[in-house]
Design brief:
The chain is of the alpha/beta class. The chain contains seven helices and twelve strands. Strands 6, 7, 8, 9, 10, 11 and 12 form a seven-stranded parallel sheet that branches. Bound molecules: S-adenosylmethionine.
Length: about 250
């Protein structure tokens, strides 16, 4: 996307985005544009919906209750949906918001909360996770908002894991070594990554996971990382070595 539009506000909308369409934003987004950002008629914003790429739009009206927008032109085509699956044990509120946002920024395609024995949070407000994913996409010029799946137990995850996908297990019990070789061996494969909870996987969970043929344990270095740090570290090495950072 041309950096000339980088300074414009970006809004995720559900409507179809095609040439010549005019539509009206809902109350919340209208208030945000007209009252918070003080946008007026003629000002421009960038819209995206996860299907039609990014569109430059112009305010046709600036009422705080209902801003209407004229679509001007498409400024980015819709990129392919990322195929990187990200599984994690939910953390408490702020840090949960953080890992959702970082996963979006790091380019995952599916966000899957996994309830393990030592997971601190067992009931999730799904709409909050989705709202965080959308906010991260708006802030970071991401055009595909990842799917946020409903939470599953680790056993359910294992029972339903697709045989054609490898699962990279961030395992602090793995002897500290560089993950480069293990990840390079997965080049071209469908992959997922799984990060444990603050209290780590139980010994039984870890043994069960490591015994699975599709699981590839990796170390994230000699120090024990907090779960939200481990999430970003794991996604960074994966994207850098076999992901879309090339
Ligand atoms: N078991 C320890 C504990 O109880 O504090 C550490 C758990 S760690 C805070 C949370 C998760 O981050 C782990 O389950 C693992 O997935 C990941 N992790 C943290 N440090 C790691 C490392 N050095 N190598 C691989 N994974 C790590």
């Amino acid at each position: 996307m041309p950096r000339t539009h980088a300074a414009l506000p970006r809004l995720y909308v559900k409507s179809a985005l095609t040439q010549g369409v005019q539509f009206t934003l809902g109350k919340e987004q209208s208030l945000y544009l007209a009252a918070v950002l003080r946008k007026v008629v003629g000002d421009q914003v960038v819209l995206f919906n996860g299907r039609d790429g990014a569109w430059l739009a112009q305010l046709a009206s600036d009422s705080k209750k209902s801003v209407s927008l004229d679509l001007v032109e498409q400024i980015a085509v819709q990129p392919p949906v990322a195929d990187l699956w990200y599984g994690f044990a939910p953390l408490k509120t702020e840090r949960l918001d953080y890992v959702i946002q970082k996963a979006v920024e790091m380019g995952v395609g599916t966000i899957q909360p996994v309830i393990t024995r030592f997971t601190q949070v067992n009931r999730l407000k799904h709409e909050r996770l989705v709202a965080n994913a959308i906010e991260a996409a708006e802030q970071c010029e991401v055009l595909n908002v990842p799917e946020v799946a409903a939470e599953v137990t680790l056993d359910r995850l294992i029972d339903s894991w697709p045989s054609d996908r490898k699962l990279i297990l961030a395992d602090e019990s793995e002897a500290s070594s560089s993950p480069v070789d293990a990840l390079q061996a997965l080049k071209g494969e469908k992959i997922g990554v799984l990060i444990g909870p603050e209290g780590g996987f139980s010994d039984g969970e870890r043994a069960k996971l490591r015994a699975l043929p599709y699981v590839v344990p990796i170390s994230l270095g000699p120090r024990i990382l907090r779960a939200d740090t481990a999430a970003v570290a794991a996604l960074a090495v994966i994207q850098a070595i076999i992901g879309d950072w090339r």
